[in-house]
Amino acid sequence: MSISRRDFLKIAGLSGLGIGFSATDLLWKRGRADAVEYMPSPKGLTAKRWAMVVDLRKFRTEEDYKRVIDACHRIHNVPDFGNPKDEVKWIWTETFEHAFPYQRNEYLPEGIQEKKALLFCNHCDNPPCVRVCPTKATFKRRDGIVAQDYHRCIGCRFCMAACPFGSRSFNWRDPRPFIKEMNPEFPTRTKGVVEKCNFCVERLAKGLKPACVVASNGGMIFGDLADPDSEVREILKTHYTLRRKAELGTRPSVFYIIGGEEDA
Amino acid sequence: MYDAGKILIGLIIFLAFATYPFYSNMGKAVAKPEPKLDTPVIQKMEVKKCVESKEFMRAEHMQLLNQWRDAALRRGERLYKASDGRTIQISFQNQCLKCHSNKKKFCDECHSYAAVKPYCWDCHFAPKEAKR
Question: How crowded is residue A149: how many other Cβ atoms within 10 Å of its Cβ?
Answer without folding.
Answer: 17
